[in-house]
Every structure is written in structure tokens, then in C-alpha cells.
Amino acid sequence: MHSEKLEGYSKKNNTALQGGGQDRIGAQHEKGKLTARERIDLLLDEGTFTEIDSLVTHHYHEYDMQKKKFFTDGVVGGYGNIDGRQVFVFAYDFTVHGGTLSQMGAKKITKLMSHAVKIGCPIIGIMDSGGARIQEGILSLDGFADIFYHNQLASGVIPQITASVGPSAGGSVYSPAMTDFVIMVEKVGTMFVTGPDVVKTVLGEEISFDDLGGAMTHGSKSGVAHFVAQNEYECMDYIRKLISYIPQNNTESPQRTKTDDDPNRLDHNLINTIPENPLQPYDMKEIIHSIVDDHEFFEIHELFAPNIIVGYARMNGQVVGIVANQPMHLAGALDIDSSNKAARFIRFCDSFNIPLVTLVDTPGYMPGSNQEHNGIIRHGSKLLYAYCEATVPRITLVIGKAYGGAYIAMGSKNLRTDINYAWPTARCAVLGGEAAVKIMYRKDLRDSKDAESLKKQLIDEFVEKFENPYVAASHGTVDSVIDPAQTRPMLIKALEMLEHKRTRHLPRKHGNINL
């Protein structure tokens, strides 16, 4: 009797492991795609995956669906380890009804999300889904709503990561958008609210799946994707590396690591990164790579709004989030996309106890009717809000230009940044010297017999009076003007001093960020 029960268990368990069956697994492989279980095994440390709810099935009868039951019901999920750290993971199984979400599939996912929040560890979702299961009607939509609600509950409590390794349409795209990081596989992952067929029917516009919602589209244009991977293997590598920089939950800090990189290391060549002509561009990433441990910088959102750089690095083993203007793109000016990108990154770092280092070289907010009409005031204020709201240790270094509202927005002292440094090359002012002189001395220049000579004299006077870091230092809005060669040790000393920083705000339900 017992042997029969064990045999029955074994049969059901083996059937569950087959998903939609060998034919559908073969079809998945023919597309060059891995199955849900193969993806989980690729992501997690070998032998650590423990599955939950493997024998779940749907419970409805319409459209002859009782004859189309599969164990797991289109979602494989459970827990395991990444480099020894526990995570929860779920993967939509395209071999079962095209990975469509059922009521029971949603219950599986929300159960895992609840476990992850209670235990305090990251949750990773692997998307390969046809969206809502039409045969279930509104119950499938209710399932998506439950997932969205749990995304909100988990936000700022545990890290949430999404891998897009197949289609996501309709309701299935909003859960990824509510997570902290999205990695899409090029030519494989797609995300859109309405597909190309609907777009053609409603708007008469013909567009491919990839151009409408592919990885490069979301990586460079919409900003939905933080990373674009070449294949599924690289996608899982991105997740594993990302996990190494972030903590398990909002009560912990990222793991410190040992480094052989001397915290007092100097770089006397760093000053030569900055061109003599302030209008000439340079690559801010050269400075970032110079000052961080082992010259290793893990960039986030690299393809989107490249006029600002965000990402993670370590300084003397401590994880830091870096925000930096990039003079190579739009002269490092702040626009709508860069404001959104940086604000989102700052708020994640603040939620999960990651100190912020800001490197400044920006001529200001981007001018023009396109920016104004699309809401640069509204979107630009998000960056101000994010810096004002952040309570983690914050250090700002002004390297070059810091003009006007952008000077304020990039972690200035009066936004309650803890330590503000500047290089001798820094230029802090309402406007650059030439622009300021043209406004303040318009009449004198117009009436002068030698306008060019007068303009040069007035610009030199303006720079001496206003546009240099020593004026800011005299007012205490810059704490120290530092030798560029000493940037790394000075930042590390400040981080160590701020390690036990504590800040409390007045109690409130939440602020009203200008979305």
C-alpha cells in the first residue's frame, strides 16, 4: 500500500518536472530559449533550488480546460542561493499554456513574494509569458492585481529584480515595471502594453515586435530596461553581479569585501582628465574608474540618458552608489530622462542603505521648447526631491561646471549633503562667466569701442569674484577644495566618518513626489 502511494507521488512529481511535456520543451529549445527550470538552475548556486507549489493546477472547466491541466500551472517557483545568499525566484513556464497567468499561478507568485518580505531577502521574477490567460477571464486579471499589490508592499523593503527572457504583454508588463531592476535579453525579451497587431488596427502603424518593445528599445529609449543582455547566460550573470552589490533587505547594508586596493592610493594624473578648455568634453568614467576599488564600476542604465551616469562600485570594500554628469553627452546637461534616471537610482540607494557619491560637471538644465513642453520642471524636480529625501551618507565632489539650478540639484550642500568637496577646476555660479557678463554688461559691451577686450576683462573679474570653488568654500557650501590626486582617500575618509550617520524626519504617511 505504501509503495503504491510512493509510486503515485513519484509519478506526479516527475510529471510536474516535465512542464508542458517534451514536445513543448523541444519547441522552446528550437527557439534558442531555455525552459523555466533551466533558467532557475542557471541563476542559482548548483543544487540549492527548493521548489514550492509544484503540484498546483487550475480549477476551471470552460473551453474544455479540464483536459488541459498541467502541474505547476505555468509558474515554477521556490527559493535557493546566489553566492550563498538566499533569494526567492519564480519563472513563467512558456511550455504550459504559453506562460499565461492563471489565478493559481498568481497565488503561487504572491505566496513567494510574501515569504520573501517576511524573511527579508530579494525576489527575482523571470518573464516569458503570453499575459493573462483568456480562458479564466477576470480571475486572471485579479491575479495580476494581487501581484501588483505585493510589488508595492515589497517596494523599499526587499530588492525586486526582473529578467525579461521572452514576451510580456498587457498586464504582465506592469509588475516588471514596479520592480527595482529589469534585465532584458536582446532579440528575445519583449514588453509592450499593446502588441503590433493592435497598434496597426488602432493607429494604422506597422511596427515589429522588437522595435515596439524589444530590449534595445526599452534599454535606450523608454528606460524600462536597466540592462540589455546578449543572451540568457549573460542575463543571469547580470543578476548575480547585481545581487553582490545590494543588501538582502532594507534593514541591512551591502556586504563589505576585502580589497588589496590601497585606500590611500593617489592618482597624480587625474587632473589631466579635465581639458583646459571647459567647453571641451571628456569621459567622466575615467575619473570614476580611477577612484574606485580595483577600477571596477558596475553601471546601471548605461544605454538610457547617457548624459548622466549611475551605478555601483566599492571604496575600501564598502559599496557606494555613484551619480555623475557625463560631459561626453549633451555636455552633461540635465534633461527629463536623466532626471528620472538619477532620481530613481538615488531613491533605491536610500531605501537600501547604500551611500551616495555624486560627481558634478554640468552646465545646467537642458533648454528648449521640447524639454519645457514635456515637463522638465516637473521631471527635473524629482532629482531635487530624491536628494532632499535621502538620509544615507552623501558626498558630493564638484569637478568642473556647476551652474544654476543644476548646481543645486546635483547634491549641493543646502540639500543636506553631508560632505561637499571641489577640485580647483570647479566652477560654481548662477551662470558661466561669458553668459553672465553678456547679461549684466549688455549695455557697456554694446557701447564699448573694444567690446572683446572689455568682455575678457569682465569675464576674468566674474571668475575671480564668483565662478571658482574658493568663493563657495568661503561660505561653507564647499567643505574643502581638494587636490584631485587625493580624491580617492578623501572620499574614503568621509565615508568612514559617516558610517554611523543617523537622520530622522518628521513623521508622515509619505511625501508627495512630483511624479
Question: Would you give an account of this structure?
Answer:
The structure is a single chain. The protein has 20 helices and 17 strands. It is α/β, with parallel strands linked by helices and 515 residues long. The strands form 3 sheets. Strands 10, 11, 12, 13, 14, 15, 16 and 17 form an 8-stranded mixed sheet that branches. Strands 1-2-3-4-5-7-9 form a 7-stranded mixed sheet, sandwiched between helices. It is elongated, with a radius of gyration of 27 Å. The termini are far apart.
Main CATH class of the largest domain: Alpha Beta
Strand fraction band?
Answer: 15-25%
**Rg over C-alpha atoms, rounded to the nearest angstrom:** 27 Å
Sequence stretches where pLDDT stays below 50 over 5 or more residues? none
**Gap between N and C termini:** 63 Å
Oligomer: single chain
In round numbers, the mean pLDDT is 92
User: How much helical structure, as a percent, in the residues?
Assistant: 25-40%
The CATH homologous superfamily of the largest domain corresponds to 2-enoyl-CoA Hydratase, Chain A, domain 1
Largest sheet: 8 strands, mixed
CATH topology category name of the largest domain: 2-enoyl-CoA Hydratase, Chain A, domain 1
Number-wise, the strands total 17
Architecture (CATH level 2) name of the largest domain: Alpha-Beta Complex
Helix-strand category: alpha/beta
- Domain count, please report it: 3
Rough shape?
elongated
Number of helices: 20
